[in-house]
Specification:
Elements lengths: L1 E3 L6 E3 L3 E5 L4 H11 L5 E5 L11 H17 L4 E4 L2 H14 L5 E2 L5 H7 L4 E6 L1 H5 L1 H10 L4 E6 L3 H5 L6 H17 L4 E4 L8 H8 L4 E3 L2 H14 L16 E5 L3 H12 L8 E3 L3
Parallel strand pairs: 3-4, 3-5, 4-11, 5-6, 7-8, 7-9, 9-10, 11-12
Antiparallel strand pairs: 1-2
Helix pairs in contact: 1-10, 2-3, 8-9
Length: 282
């Protein structure tokens, strides 16, 4: 059922799950949630006017987290997913404090499963500069340090390359090659993708890292966590899946709708050609 938003001129789905990211990265998480929760509807906000989050001051990212969470709450979303590692690191605590009794699922690099998988005892993490520098990330690494040596490597510029349409794969490989060479030299045999943009270049990372290195994404764990939270709050839609994916998502961008739609189709496929992307000015 579609309802009229509290924001004039914006149409949204009732009782949907709100999702946001700075750009297309969160689409990797959205895809996992659409597959794992086939009866749920979603509102996806790409905060492209402020892209990328990864090199901005922490207080600016926190402000955007609160602005977007306030908007999604105002649209009567039943829960929110922060489909961005940098945003989670900078603003998850503040968003939860501002919205008590509202299920909020963040995303963190999968250090725990990586530490269980490594045979060499060395785990590499690819992330944005802000994620690596955050206190939340440092605390996460310290918790699992006895199980594995964790080497975090920022990848400045990678998000911007992934946001290009089409993606310039040679330039992406050139950026990643020395980073992965350094991690391999330090004996890392598990690499965690610590930014939701990075799964879209997982094939290039696996190619450069070689067959003996395991690459871990976080989309499915987030989808599982969302299901758990919705179940615990009695909010999970128990109906049978009956709508195609394209009819289960309302898309918004603070950037240019047509440009975002082009990237969306390039990344998720031509099934999304008929999707409408709405302009959001917040």
């Amino acid at each position: 059922m579609q309802i009229q938003s509290h924001t004039p001129g914006i149409a949204v789905f009732a009782q949907s799950v709100g999702v946001f990211d700075s750009g297309v990265g969160g689409l990797s998480v959205l895809k996992a949630m659409l597959n794992y929760l086939p009866a749920e509807r979603f509102q996806f906000v790409a905060d492209e006017r402020y892209l990328p989050y990864g090199d901005k001051p922490q207080h600016e990212i926190t402000d955007r987290v609160l602005t977007l969470s306030n908007w999604l709450r105002n649209q009567e979303c039943k829960a929110m997913v922060m489909a961005c590692n940098t945003a989670t690191a900078a603003g998850a605590n503040q968003a939860r404090a501002a919205h008590a009794n509202w299920p909020i699922v963040g995303i963190e690099p999968a250090v725990k499963p990586a530490s269980m998988l490594t045979k060499t005892g060395v785990v590499g993490i690819l992330a944005t500069t802000n994620t690596v520098a955050s206190e939340r990330f440092k605390g996460l690494v310290e918790r699992f340090d006895p199980l594995a040596k964790v080497i975090a490597h920022p990848c400045p510029g990678l998000v911007e390359l992934i946001e290009q349409s089409p993606m310039p794969e040679p330039a992406i490989e050139a950026l990643l090659k020395p980073v992965l060479a350094e991690l391999l030299q330090k004996n890392a045999d598990v690499i965690v993708l610590g930014c939701t943009h990075y799964p879209f270049v997982a094939h290039l990372i696996s190619k450069l890292a070689g067959p003996d290195v395991t690459v871990i994404e976080t989309g499915l764990p987030v989808a599982k966590q969302l299901k758990t939270r919705l179940e615990s709050e009695g909010l999970l839609n128990m109906g049978e899946a009956h709508l195609p994916m394209i009819e289960r998502v309302s898309f918004f961008t603070t950037g240019q709708p047509e440009a975002f739609k082009t990237k969306l189709v390039n990344l998720l496929g031509t099934d999304w050609l008929q999707v409408k992307v709405q302009q959001l000015d917040i």
